[in-house]
Amino acid sequence: MARPKSFLPRLEITCAGKAHGCQHNKEKHRFAKGDRRLTVSEGRNPEHFCLDCARQFLQADIKRLQDLLAALGE
Length: 74
Ligand SMILES: [Zn+2]
Description:
Blueprint: E1 10-15, E2 20-21, E3 30-31, E4 36-41, E5 47-49, H1 51-72
Antiparallel strand pairs: 1-4, 2-3, 4-5
């Protein structure tokens, strides 16, 4: 049997190797070296999000997936 396919891009918690900004708000959401962040690897440029943005976006995605699943029916 084929392995179930994932529709999600690769998501992982990583640590910032140097100081930089969150992809969503580069000026206001800053990382220091060693801070934890959510890394989304889709295509060749990984994007990094601060933990507040990560929580917000993951919750919105979970809601969307639940709605899609509900729309599929039993
Ligand atoms: Zn952010």
